[in-house]
Amino acid sequence: MLKKLFVILAFLSLGIYAFALNVILFIADGMAVNQLVLASILEGKVLQTMKLPYTAVILTYSADSWVTDSAPAGTALASGFKTLNRAIGVLPNGEIVPSMMELARNLGYKTGIVVTCRVTHATPAAFYGHVTSRDDEITLAKQLSQAEIDVIFGGGHSYFLPEAKGGRRKDDLDLIQQMVNQGYQYVTKKSELDKITSEKVIGLFAPSHLEPVSDRPSEQPTLDVMTKKAIEILSKSGEAFILMVEGSQIDWEAHANDFYGVWKEVMEFDNAVKVAIDFAKRDGNTLVIVTGDHETGGLSLSNGNYTILVDHARKAKGTTTMFLKKFKVEEKEKFIAGLKEWYSIDLSEKEYEMLSKIPSNALRRELARFVSGKLGFGWTTFDHTAGPVPLFAFGPGAHYFTGVMDNTDVAKLIMNLCGITSAIFPKVESKTSGY
Fold this sequence. Notes:
Blueprint: H1 2-13, E1 22-28, H2 33-43, E2 54-59, H3 70-79, H4 100-105, E3 110-118, H5 122-125, H6 137-145, E4 151-155, H7 175-181, E5 185-187, E6 201-204, H8 223-235, E7 241-247, H9 250-255, H10 259-283, E8 286-292, E9 295-296, H11 310-314, H12 320-326, H13 332-343, H14 349-356, H15 360-375, E10 384-385, E11 389-394, E12 403-406, H16 407-417
Parallel strand pairs: 1-7, 1-8, 2-12, 3-4, 3-7, 4-6, 5-6
Antiparallel strand pairs: 2-11, 8-11, 9-10
């Protein structure tokens, strides 16, 4: 009760008449408007994310580049500060900056992270970690083990275990056992989620990332399942909470220029958004923010002729990774028949010769770009772009998230609404700070 009273007083000091607020922040890695609309077109419906009542356009540049990577983008959304590409939770000069979760915990907020990548990957790490290079996941795992985040769901248990136990750590630390000793319940399978009894839990469902949702084993949970369980655990005590949920693998499918992979990863993400919105509508005290961290691939929703072959695209059977497990390019007749079966593509002799000469390490993405092009989708790059991303908001305070904003403003507004930023950000002056 005293913790809630402190938060109420903090709101009043900011001139905001509010109360202890739950926040669920969704980050779709690599997703801009076109990735969202692609999934909407192929599903033949307006997605849950697109129905939220307040919208904004978010600029994503980092401290040293118009084209951000996920580490500074995550840092901006988690803490409200710009930093260098590849840096997490530190300023360009190396100074540590706290995330909203670190600050909120001091006010009694519960916190959680739900992802389909390793929990030590760039976006989740921005909410607890502080390293100059996102590649330092061994250090990030140790920082996470000490971060006191209440609910952690994702992949990457090999980063928490010593080599003697099949992990990657050379320091002989068993961070999972250390967390269990701190009171965490540890789960590794989807079927174990229903057996959780603790309010502090770490669920690591793969040694590295979870498998893509298009081809995920049954014991690796989907994002909506993990989100539902995380909300259930975090809301149980009645204390306010902040939960970050990442659609991690939209980015990877866009890096590969795979329209099918993007479609299915966006839908997994949207299903998780629906779980949160359903809770927020029942709860009445939950702000839901849905945004991307950057755009990946330079996706266009036509490559000419004013058309997309939507009917053919809807009949696609899987990603090109899945396709190449089944059809080998050197087996010409099967490969050509496979493209017809999986993607409704009639491959010419010249096109086959072109594909057959691509090096094996580049075949997946070149085939994905080829398939996309045949169905009417265009891509400009296999990397990130500087394109803006959308933001959608629902719940108390959602009306503040409108217009053109900088990604740092998202964190500042969330923290202002939670009453935890007056000493750091007295107010949000500009929606395009530093532009």
